[in-house]
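Ticket #4471: structure export looks truncated?
Reporter: QA, pipeline team
Priority: medium

Steps to reproduce: submit the single chain below to the structure queue and open the exported record.
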Amino acid sequence: MKIAIIEDELLAVNYLKNLLDQQRIVPVTETVILRSKKQAIDFFQKDSADLIFMDIHLGDGMSLEIFEQVELFTPVIFITAFDEYAMRVFRHFTIDYLLKPFEEEDLHKALQKFISIRNNFDPEPVLKSISTLQQGDAEVMRRFMVREGNKLKSIDEHSTAYFFASGKYLFLTTVDHQTYIYDDTIKDIIQKLNPQVFFKVNRKFIINKESITEIIKHSSQKVELKLSPEPEVNAEVFISKRQITECLGWLNS
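Actual output as written to the record:
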């Protein structure tokens, strides 16, 4: 099998590779060494591996950012020297993690776990968990600066009913029916918001849970949300089909 090691510390690379060469749990036919996030992205854009060992912190950024550039459907064993990351990864991901400095026995246990779940590995929960983990690492925005004439105004998250995209602009609408242009994109702002308060229901709307006045289920694949205040444009707000289950779960949480 082909193994990829994403690690920027040469000593750590050599240590792991030697352990992999000596073990007899999985047959290793090729080991690819990737020393940076950029190298990993370039590699996985045109190639693949059967198993990835991935350090969380690399010299050119967080390795989790690799998933933003390429689709990886490969089991991952994470490597970290930071307890707080290790414990969060352990909760979220389905393979395993190695906490530096790890011993040969730790690697063997991780490989045995990989073998036991390899045939049933489902990448979708892993990719969703990565997104959750990245959002958790970012600083959550609680207030939003908007322009009101020649003045700046700060609006807190609980006064924000929803964000909506129209044309080239992103707008913020408050609970008291005021709408402002907000200098960001819907794709970027969702990464900065409190996931307990806001949810991106479709390509145009990110809503505050408290702004929902009614949920109308037209069918299992068509769920409409009534908001207060009612949007001035795109008045009918439907949950994206692929988001329905997750959104309803968020509403119940």
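Status: closed, not a bug. The export was complete when the record was re-opened. Leaving a note from the reviewer for reference: The mean pLDDT is 85.
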